[in-house]
Amino acid sequence: MAKHALHTEFADIAALRQALDRRAVSAVELARSALDAAQDAADLNAFLHIDADLTLQQARAADAALAAGTAGPLTGVPIAHKDAFVTRGWRTTAGSRMLGQYVSPFDATVVERLQEAGAVSIGKLNCDEFAMGSGNENSAFGPVRNPWDRAAVPGGSSGGSAAAVAARLVAAATGTDTGGSVRQPASLCGVTGIKPTYGTVSRFGIVAFGSSLDQAGPLARSSRDALALLDAMAGFDPRDATSVQNCGPVANAPGRVQRDFDGAQARYEAGGAQPLAGLRIGVPAEYLGDGLADDVRAAVQAALAQFEALGARRVEISLPRTELAIPAYYVIAPAEASSNLARYDGVRYGHRTADYADLTEMISRSRAEGFGEEVKRRILIGTYVLSHGYYDAYYLQAQRLRRLIAQDFQRALEQCDVIMGPVAPTVAKDIGENRDDPTADWLADIYTLGVSLAGLPAMSVPCGFGSGAHSRRPVGLQIIGNYFDEGRLLAIADRYQHVTDWHLRAPASQDA
Ligand code: GLN
């Protein structure tokens, strides 16, 4: 059993920063402890690449900044990055054999921004290959185990990120979410995660999967900790053509999410015992219907009741095309993936086969050897739906559906302020459970895909556990907002976390 790292002795990132400021703890001590904890928890398989020298170099720089009085909002805070973000120094594999030895010459914008804010990276975290999956079982480097129950998956594709935060190896981690990959592992590991509005966080340096869907977001213990990371990560980046300059009337820059959070927070605080009075929570009938496990439904209903106790009003709404998000996403995401992954040809970078007679054979063998099953499946589907004759029947139809799904959300958000429901239909499944039916996992994305297709922000907040044999497997509540509502979502989740302690629970540590 893993041991919790030193940072867990402090309630949250804010408390940790204060302790660093008064020299109650140093960045080097925190980093060493996190490195040790990661080592002890090797059986989780959460980390893919660790380099103590690189980490300690960052930690020493953090201590120097603290001493010089130039510390930033995250100085000395131990975090780790999903291996889908390129990093100088640490290898970047995106969970693929194709990139097995790849070291990037530059840092992703997210990595750069978090480093500028002072965060110390403990290393790179395991994930599904090219972020394709819902259980972290598609990593070329083996599955990640759920720290709550090692027989279970941690969720995916940011499974290493969720597991590392849940096991208290790091204070927070980065993830990417194309169709649910921040929210779903956060839910299955009992941590707090947020996928922001598409375009608010730069995709520069994220190994591309589905470019019109990919967004980065943090996973952390609490909503406040997630806020601390997101605020530093978000902001316009001229190196990403889809990065937004403005979020409504305000610039997309660090400080925006924090300001929105503070504004919402001030209003809620003025509400006293009913901080959320007036908040209309839309609950889509389609999110609580058939296919949702009873234990997940019960945990979500209990969370909704808790929000009502805080003053919010529940409004029944409908998202009529919820089921259609699955075929729409599983056409669009593979289409974009097939195009993005064309770059791995054994020439520019990535794996090259040892044995070939000519160029064509070199490319096909390199790809056959480098890619795993799920990635090949998606490349085939994507190539098919984009091909002449099938483009209109599949790709174009999926794009039309995408537009209608986005409209459904806008209509629903006229009747309510935020939407709540489950993140996933069940608690974490067993490792290997869907081995013979690869598309079974796809169906489990039903509550997260629509949000991604619409480009909306959404988070997962721990709200309970499963029942019976699954009583140690966490359940997350999904909170969905309108475009650029990140600050408000985090403030709403924060009110919930004031009166509940699901987010404070952690899998037992060795010396607890
Ligand atoms: N489970 C979805 C998929 O496999 C979403 C993954 C993601 O968000 N990266 O594509």
UniProtKB/TrEMBL annotation:
GO terms for biological process: translation. Its EC number is 6.3.5.7. Pfam families: Amidase (PF01425). It is an enzyme of class 6 (ligase). It catalyses: L-glutamyl-tRNA(Gln) + L-glutamine + ATP + H2O = L-glutaminyl-tRNA(Gln) + L-glutamate + ADP + phosphate + H(+). One of its GO terms (molecular function) is transferase activity. The keyword ATP-binding applies. The active site is at K82 (charge relay system), S157 (charge relay system), S181 (acyl-ester intermediate). Transmembrane segments: none annotated. Keywords: ATP-binding, Ligase, Nucleotide-binding, Protein biosynthesis, Transferase. GO terms for cellular component: glutamyl-tRNA(Gln) amidotransferase complex. Residues 30-490 form the Amidase domain. Allows the formation of correctly charged Gln-tRNA(Gln) through the transamidation of misacylated Glu-tRNA(Gln) in organisms which lack glutaminyl-tRNA synthetase. The reaction takes place in the presence of glutamine and ATP through an activated gamma-phospho-Glu-tRNA(Gln). Belongs to the amidase family. GatA subfamily. Heterotrimer of A, B and C subunits. This is Glutamyl-tRNA(Gln) amidotransferase subunit A. The lineage of its organism: Bacteria, Pseudomonadati, Pseudomonadota, Betaproteobacteria, Burkholderiales.
